[in-house]
Known about the structure:
This protein is an alpha/beta fold.
Amino acid sequence: MECELQDADTKFNSAEARTVGLVVVGDEILKGRTSDTNTGYAMAKFKESGLKVKRVAVVADQEDDIVEELRRQVSMCDVVVTSGGLGPTHDDVTLYAVARALGQAMTQNAQMMKLIRTQKAKRSPDPDAEISLTPAEEKMATLPLGSQLRTPPGRPGGWPVLQCGRVFILPGVPEFFEEKLDTICASFLPSRGPTALRRISLGLDELQIVDALNACVSEHTEVTFGSYPFHGEGEVRTVVTVEGDDDSAVTLASEDFVKRVEQLCESEEAAVLGVDTVSELHTSRTWRTPHI
């Protein structure tokens, strides 16, 4: 898959993004040696910001695999965030993959070299010593051509966020990934707030509400429906979610679905057990289950 995005990317403003993708890089995740907590954290942050996640992928520490996935996501998402593969060792190839995916050369970045030297100077016992970079440090200062080192507003001394075109390149260590993602979402991506959401709890099995659900999916194309079965104790047997950017459209679709369920199941007692509003869902975690 060829990628001819250089011209478009130079004009791209991340503050206008509406969709996002995530590429998690690491053999240790695919082999089950390390748990991937970054994906869950990112999904929650993107949802808070009102960004639509279009794709998430975990790929090996193989440059060709990363390039292929980046090209796919850049072609379908406004912004792509990567996690992992930024260290100095042989298997840290994310930067090279980003350069290839965006059609850019790799070059030593003067600003990054200065930052690394500054950090080394702070740790040096001799303040007058000449600071040189090791080959590993030079590798870390070699970035895709056109990369931006973006410093958060109000934090001129903070370590910058690396952005190349529409790709934000983050470390894989959860502590650092979360810190950088917080910065990106707060300073460089739009904050539209969470999308409108309703959760409809039903005392019915999924098979009983298929007709009502399918009819609403066809009728209300501007919102997204989800259906989640519950097994075990309790009255709730199915939860249906309705989500969208327009609260009025979500409300209308939710009311239509509830009406159709009640019409289909007139003989059922407590077919609809409750409808949670967006404010209730975002101030309480009690609705979350392994099925959602």
